[in-house]
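The protein record now logged underneath.
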Amino acid sequence: MNGALDISMLATDLADYLVRQGMPFREAHGVVGRLVRQAEDRGVGLDQLSLDEMRAGSILFDVDVAAVFDFAESVERRNVAGGTATEAVRGQIQQARTCLVAKSVRDSAVTQ
């Protein structure tokens, strides 16, 4: 699966970064869209754009933006119900198991 990863998959994370810096999402989406196009035109990944190039899109970008380009961290940042973080997935698995046990108990009661 790692081979299928493409840095452009983190574009939403880049927009979320701008939101955390105080930019409305609709504006962040536009800024990141322009950066994606710029990277594609140059034939490089988003993570290959310099900080100056990113800052040309928004002054809200700072040196910590490099942390956005980490797939494992991207997964873990989504620690909400239905999210991709390890803890969230474990919770979803436990919920599924609970539902399956309850269904099994109901099915057993019906057949007896």
The chain is about 60% helix and 0% strand. The mean pLDDT is 92.
